[in-house]
Automatic annotation (TrEMBL), chains A, B, C, D:
Organism: Neolewinella aquimaris
Subunit structure, as described in the record: Homotetramer.
Lineage top rank: taxon: Bacteria
Descriptive protein name: Tryptophan 2,3-dioxygenase
InterPro entries: Trp/Indoleamine_2_3_dOase-like (IPR037217), Trp_2_3_dOase (IPR004981)
Length: 365, 365, 365, 365
């Protein structure tokens, strides 16, 4: 095909390869001579899911490429954001699609269920690739009968998954990008020190207000204890050694420096230079939350379709899926940033030099 | 494949023909050596649409088959209802999917738009089949440059469309089914006479109440005129000759008898025997409304993508699509039944014999 | 107000009591002189939720009334179905509404969070009433700090909750209605016996097919064991004594007779007389699933807003909400019916007399 | 209320003013002694709409305030964006809410419809305020019976609407903000000249490629004519005098300078400094499109509810609403920017000095 090809014409039907596409639905019940009406729906449902998984992978791969450049170019960040947002939009659609599956009743499913054995959603390599590309590691996964999730795949597929798992996931690239944030120490402004001071001041102020308030003694004590807990919590989390211990033990995953950078971005997100980084972190939460909801809704649908019986893949589908919903969350540490935030009114003001540094400088010269 | 095939195993990947499915995305920009990132999305979007169209056609064809049986079996009606409802659910998803398309910006579309020429959604034969199967006739369609919508299709596709258009659409089968409703004359109960009497009584009563009310004279006049208009309207619509004139002129499509049956079903829908017929008519409205919304949202999306410029198919896409939204509605006459309804409090009571006739009779003998 | 009131005019603004309605948003941060922009959203979000809860209660109360009539009238069942379906539609909207809440960032919430103490969604008496009316008993609830969920309410509210909990919930009314199903024994047709025979035949047939198949020995063994497990399961569940033991121990809640009736309705749902009962059971699952999803999404939102810190109500909101999502499911036993279904091809044919009994009898005499 | 108030406690029930809120549903049918079950739904539906309208107005007013500052502060733009996005999210919910209304059947509506006269959605002053605040002028509105839309409002409400219409709408503030864009002339870089040159080069190139292609003569002619039309179109639109003529005649509304700035922002949106402006323009399109869809769906719902009969407000509701859907669009000119875009490959490169000027400059000194 040459570049001038844009001047050859193409028909919609050919462009989309519809002859091939629409011949790929091959109900097994039909082949066996006892067509189950709903098997076509079942096939199309899953083919559509796989097409969307391919699209998500396409977007993720492009994002990884942009992030892998030696120096992440600022003018790529907007593109990254738009592509992550597209993934969220697609996941929303995947969730809605469960409603279509729910139009199939358990009795209708039984008409062809036996033909599927032992095929199952566990065997979707693309979905595993999506999870792995985002950053889910083999050790994070809930095991099924104590075996690697990879055993249902071909060697070639296993190799692809292995490459993804060892090649630098989005989680790792985001972590490195956060660690590179140049704003943590800025001239003589030390963000962490200023933040800790603000936390202390805020907590002292609150304790004083509680003492002087009209609250009953038991209420005073309760609120006071809450404030005290917060204080301990902040100290605990912001301690580098403590943090590293948590990472080592698996309680946290994101490195200390990346965590602090994410905190800074959340607190000062209104600074123009931090708008896009903030939106980007938000989008990672959206993707994580979307996938969690999808897994959960999927588990509900399976429950509805087959009750507590084991799925076609030989697993008690509902329980497994319901457990993965939350456990396979990837950017959990970013969710936890919320518990470190302090009110804007307590935020340390940025020194003017820093504030200028974080703004846009349009120099028309 | 033999019946025992349900005891051969199958892998998810093979069952869904994923090797083939995932190789059918062939961006023309890539072939030409200047990959446009968003072309993959564009292809997958449309392939997913076509898969859903196939599913809708599968459901519609099965419904037509059930309706074509000499005597529509009552115990098929529930199945018909569930399948129509599935179509509505799928259309809801098609509408949601427009959000995914909207993540593609006009500038991104421009990167590969030239490669598509003259491919266009006009060339989706499956969508035309959906419309024709529901009951859209060639003469109902908004013409484009005064030519048949069929000219963009192959001879074989044109033949298929022709067969559908002449083979008895869902509209026609529903019309015949309504005409067969046995309840219009029931022993010595004449529904239409009773209904017209009720309308007259209701209107007389309302006029009296208006006269006796505390309303200002101008308000009395306005309300009175409204009631009078209603009266004229009812007389007009319920007149067989007038109705047939409207059908002849194209102002209405549904036959007189079918219209009256639909009216009866709406008014007495709480009678057990009319539950499913009522739900079925409602579902036809849902499908019609869903497709209308889809066309309208599609038109908006095209406007956003290319403004007022002509589409890749050489049409001013937005205007054409926006006009089809409402014009290609199929069950318009069922929507209009609403304007014939009268309040339950004015409804003629069914004679006890009729009421028993419309209930369930469980005879445990 | 007299009946003639329909002839006095009313303005939209007055009808909706907008002067009062729009004056009920009273941000505490504003009262304290430091307006937090997002507090208005927070108030309106929750007021909208409460308005919808009122609507759900209105529908539920009307459904309970219809079910409480000595003999549930068949021509009310369609109304019941439409109202339950409306509840599902409203719950779908409640779920969507979480997206609006998610436009509030954690930092924005912090601006007024302290003013809310200790107000919390735990204190929504209407939501508790919805759960209780559906059938959630006090003992089913996850306790919070080991105390009754009622302690946050006024005495009058507690009394209302108590009345609901002891007055016959929807669960109980549905259970009684199922138990009254007259189809279980029908002339000389004994549904349960026929069903058990069909299960045995089906299982025997499957075992034979597995033995004769080309499967590897280990596969044969695995499939055979699965079939065997099914067999045990069916025997187990269909045994009245065993069932009663499960109810006594809390493993199941729905009575044996009601369970068998629900099974019959699911298996023979295509019989006209069972259409509405089947749709009604389906709608109960939809409501249950909708509330479950709402609780789960709510938990996710709380996690996002405040991380792992305790909520304004003093609870670790996310964990509590996430646990209630599944635990507060009410019609769990209806979900489990799915695991008792057998393929239509194995279903015992109904004797012709029974089949006639389940159809419509339109007698035009 | 003093600042220490955050240390007085508040109950959820009191905070939300639930006693008052839940007593504002006063069905007229109940007052008249013939309760129509669905009237409560009707009231709650509309009260919820009005609460959301209040929220939209709250967001719009805050955005206007931020835009009215002498010099729009860059670090407010992100806040503006988040608030506009919230409005879009709310509008999505308003659209979804129509499904709840659609659970009310025409027959159910008839049970209380007479009581509403002449109340109607036309009388929602808040919705008119939303439209006016966005920028809809009185002269843009489709008139109803040739009278001002304001006549259904009180004098005080009319005055409020007048103030909004004359006080600087969002449209006007956006227009001024676009006109202030400093990037149109940048050192010796003249954006418009460079853009026009690029358009000419692109068109010449395309014409050459068409001539040299393998297309049939008629195809060549067709494509060539399309390209020619584009060329004319670009010239036409980019001519200041021609543009001013269009504004004067009402064909366009956005000023020439603002249009060119919007074009630049769309073309160079990847430049960091233009990210937020681009996202902001996109959000205005989203709001416009959302309101259009809402009006359209609303029109459909009215059609379904009352057919072609006149609404309670005395208008033929469906037709009026369907026409406003598109006609009351406010940022039409921003939609049309799409037709002015040219492919990135044809875009003039920015001189390095300009590119630096559009990037972030982080100076850690």
């Amino acid at each position: 095909m040459s570049k001038s090809d844009k001047y050859t014409t193409i028909h919609y039907h050919k462009y989309l390869e519809l002859d091939a596409l629409l011949s790929l639905q091959k109900p097994r019940s039909t082949a066996a001579g006892e067509t189950a009406h709903d098997e076509t729906l079942f096939i199309i449902m899953h083919q559509v899911y796989e097409l969307w998984f391919k699209q998500i992978l396409t977007e993720l791969d492009s994002v990884l490429l942009l992030f892998r450049e030696e120096r992440v170019r600022e003018d790529n960040m907007h593109t990254v954001l738009l592509r992550l947002r597209r993934i969220t939009t697609i996941i929303d659609l995947l969730i809605e699609q469960i409603r279509v599956m729910e139009t199939m009743t358990p009795l209708d499913f039984l008409d062809f269920r036996d033909y599927l054995f032992p095929a199952s959603g566990f065997q979707s390599v693309q979905f595993r690739m999506v999870e792995a590309t985002l950053g889910l590691r083999e050790e994070d996964r809930i095991t099924y009968h104590g075996k690697s999730y990879k055993i249902v795949f071909t060697e070639e597929q296993q190799a692809r998954l292995h490459d993804i798992e060892t090649g630098g996931s989005l989680f790792e690239l985001i972590e490195k990008w956060l660690e590179r944030t140049p704003f943590l120490r800025f001239g003589d402004f030390d963000f962490l020190a200023a933040y800790q001071e603000a936390v202390d001041r805020m907590i002292g102020h609150e304790q004083a207000q509680i003492s002087n308030s009209q609250l009953s003694d038991s209420m005073k004590e309760m609120r006071s204890r809450m404030v005290g807990d917060s204080s301990t919590y902040f100290k605990h989390v912001l301690d580098r050694e403590e943090h590293e211990r948590m990472v080592a033990s698996g309680e946290a995953r994101l490195s200390y420096d990346a965590t602090i950078a994410a905190l800074l971005i959340n607190l000062y997100r209104d600074q123009p230079i931090l708008n896009i980084p903030f939106n980007l972190l938000t989008e990672l939460l959206n993707i994580d939350e979307g996938l969690t909801t999808w897994r959960y809704r999927h588990a509900q649908m399976v429950m509805r379709m087959i009750g507590n019986k084991i799925g076609t893949g030989g697993s008690s589908g509902h329980d497994y899926l319901a457990r993965t919903a939350e456990q396979h969350k990837i950017f959990r540490d970013l969710h936890n940033i919320s518990s470190l935030l302090i009110p804007r009114s307590s935020l340390p003001d940025l020194p003017p030099a820093v504030e200028r540094g974080l703004g846009f400088h349009f120099r028309n010269t």
